[in-house]
Amino acid sequence: MDLFGLNINHSTPHPSKMTSSNIFILASDNSPKLLPILRANPSLASSQDSHGYSLLHAAASYNHHNLLHTLIHELHVDPNIKDEDSETPLFAAETVETAQILAESQCDLTAKNHEGLTAEEKIRTEGEFVVVADYLKEQRMSSGDQTSSSSTGNGQVSQRPPPLPPNVTLNVGTTTEEDLPEEVDTEFRAKIEELAAREDFKGEEGQRQLRELVTEAVRGVERDAEG
To answer: For the whole model, what pTM was predicted?
Structure first.
């Protein structure tokens, strides 16, 4: 507009620029203004701030369950979206219902953050929402991932059992005294006890020697069977 010889230009920012800066506040407040904005600009639904914090992280953290469900199932936000600490929204869950929505939306229960912890392990270590960690453990166990490492009550992460040597299988069953051989290989038992008493038994070298000892014992059984 030309006013008194001066050229005055009024420009209006693009709608996405106006809204992208405050959608995280709207998500935290569960404002009714948010979803109309996202539906008009679906790409905003997967927005992340400079720290990787997403609308999904906000919805999970503040237990906005309807928003959480809408973001995932209507606006197709990836439930495994990660922030700068490599944490998915599951890490922010403070209630079982929030964790359940994410778990039922194919959120990866085994995803680890930069500290190498899963959501279950981190939540249990922090000790504030243990009921959520218990729920995640139940889900992990029911999915068949029973060998995954998990945190103990003192916050330490338990070790996974060492893998068996190649071509070796383990059959679990019951044994009676009549099934046991009359003589036990005392040398083999002594080696196991000696190895277990070492400080580095749970370390890489100790586990390597354990696998070698098991392999040696299995091969000895095979040789006896062939003879």
So the answer is: 0.58
- Cα 227 to Cα 101, 221, 222, 223, distances in angstroms: 59, 10, 9, 6
Length of the chain, please? 227
DSSP 84-99: TTS--GGGG--SHHHH
∠ CA 75-77-78 to the nearest 5 degrees? 150
Half-sphere exposure of 16 (CA within 13 A, CB side): 9
Those residues with Cβ within 8 angstroms of residue 194's Cβ, 6 or more apart along the chain or in another chain: none
Strand positions, DSSP E, the chain:
2-3, 6-7
pLDDT in tens, the chain (227 residues): 444 444 444 444 444 444 555 999 999 999 999 999 999 999 999 999 999 999 999 999 999 999 999 999 999 999 999 999 999 999 999 999 999 999 999 999 999 999 999 999 999 999 999 999 999 999 999 877 654 444 444 444 444 444 444 444 555 444 444 544 444 467 777 777 787 777 777 777 777 777 787 777 767 666 666 65
Question: Is 79 exposed, middle or buried, given 0-12, 13-18 or 19+ CB atoms closer than 10 A?
Answer: buried
72 neighbors 59 (Cβ within 8 angstroms) = no
Q: Which two tokens mark 72? A: 């995932």
Sign of CA dihedral 132, 138, 142, 143: positive
Scan for tokens 């995280």, then name that residue.
24
CA distance 125 to 132: 12
